[in-house]
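User: Show me a protein chain along with its predicted structure.
Assistant: Here is one chain, sequence first, then structure tokens.
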Amino acid sequence: MSGTVRLRPAGAPEGASDLRAFMKVALRRWGVVGAVAPSSAVLARALTTVVPAMGTPVVVELGPGTGPVSEGVRARMAPGGRHIAIEIDPSMVAHLRRVRPWLEVIHGDAADLGALLEAAGAGRADAVVSTLPWSLFPGERQARMLAEIGRVLAPGGAFTTVNYLPAMPLAGARAFRARLRAAFDEVLATGPVWRNVPPGVVYVCRRPAGGVPRRAAVSG
């Protein structure tokens, strides 16, 4: 990476291309996307507060979509860090590689995170950032993905993700929050982030519990 850059302003040339790519996949694979619009820059900043601004960190992004949160990671991450994005949809992979060539995109499933990082020659992640639609995933898949995230996090690393407000009362979202509390010793809720469509609550998770339920410090 050549250095720290600012988020692109609204109306940047990539914006129209990003929106077209997002809508194409959202209409075809709602169960994978789970959002009605790309993440806002405000949500991206909230999710990326855990990205190290010093050293040579490894930052992993799950479900980058068209890349708005990728821009947030890039804006914050220390020069020389490694930014890896795991994306399951092949058309999104192609889009990201075309419009964001600085991003290291791996085509794969976040449920195979450990194996994907090992194949890429990456050690543990200093931060994992996700906008995956957790409430749409079956319980077993949620548990497997959280276990993988906990397994790859470096000591002192953190995981951030979002629950969208309209989904909060749903059984899948409630189950996900319970699994977060079981998977991490500390789960802190921040927000809501109102300047996003839809608004969402950001969860900052630290100290993986190794799959053993513990009393977590939970706000929200």
